[in-house]
Amino acid sequence: MPLADARALTPGLQVADADLDGDIEALSRLTLWCTRYSPVAEVQGLDGIAIDLTGVAHLFGGEGRLVEDLAGKLEGFGLTASLVVAPTIGAAWALARYGDRPLNRIGVNRLGAWLAPLPVAALRLPLATVEGLGRLGLKRIGDLVGKPRAPLTARFGPELMIRLDQALGRHAEALVPLRPVPHFRRVARFAEPIMAQGDIEAVLTRLAHALANRLETAGTAGRSFVFTLFRVDGKSTSLDIRTARPTRDAAHILRLFRDRLASMAEEVDAGFGFDIMALGAFDTEGQDATQPGLSPEPGIADPQDLAILIDRLVTRFGGDRVTRFVPRESYLPERAAAGISAIEAGHIGKAGKGAALAPGSPWAEHLAMSQGGHHQGRPLLILTTPSPIETLAELPDGPPARFTWQRVAHKVTRAEGPERIEPEWWSVPDGQAPPPRDYYRVEDDQGRRYWLFREGLYDGGTPPRWYMHGVLP
Fold it and tell me: Do 55 and 155 fall into the same domain?
């Protein structure tokens, strides 16, 4: 009713603005908490959560006890919920919103009897479709069963029959979990909540070893791991780590999580305690057992040691602060290498012009592509953005005789070049390609060497411009 009418009936009525964004965020947090029962949990609309209980109900003593446990905890949170267990997503959605009481598991052969008296709106149909069906006298789901499908599809579209078939189990439907489902997962549940840091680390140790054994048995390893702590008051906290190489080393996984726990000690609020903890492995890859070297040669580093060091640095400082360079398909010096996260380096591959090459690609191959197979004397470090300079040249197309950079004048005594680099026409809009560059290696009267280039040609048009691009050793 209008707010003015409501206040006339109840003068002391409390009114608050609707916070839809806040409601969605709260529902998402509750959905993440529901992953304590199953890793597959999905937010449905503005008021619902769907949980896939396939293969997990026995861990709680069956579906009946699982629903009782869930209902008791939601009631403790001060939430009123309608809980239904059904063999299809559509049936559970319909009975939870339009049914008259919570139900135990319903067999597929009984779905039609339970759904028949419900309104057609229980099929998750658009309002226009529901109103159109009502004008035809089709107000209940049972009214649609057995009716000719072709006329209804022609009038209301294919969604009507698809929704009906999904609810009755004739058409497959899958949940889209709020969080990716781990390929391998180990869970610990406690009769009494725990909150001490030492107890949390002890549980993490047990889970890490159990997960590592499971990965080893399966002949695989993970690149990403997530440790989730579920609080008794409906909140959850997740800590995640990524590794440079696939691993199933429990000691290494524990060391990384301990670093995360230490860095996030203030953010991990135990509240009234955690009653469930879970450790999952993602991005798994096949990995055969390997024999470490019995007598490694002195001075030769083990690649695995470097990977372990990268993992610890990334865990401590963040993935965007630990980077490595990989070659990129470009002739322009400032685009010939790309800085990427050291953790994500293993996932970078070819993706067309201008893309980073695979990290295993030798730099020699990149040199052959970008410099014609010859080392042109380029500096190892160049300026991110070329810096303008003022020059005085003896010949229009020759190297400069003098140049001024950062207000300091330099007299050129030696010069070598040019090395011409044409613009990459495929990476710029038509007609906007920059002019070619002529690079020179020059040495001034103080013995300092620089890498300069002239952008443009003396062709009577726009005068060329000179830039400093690097300092040579």
Answer: yes
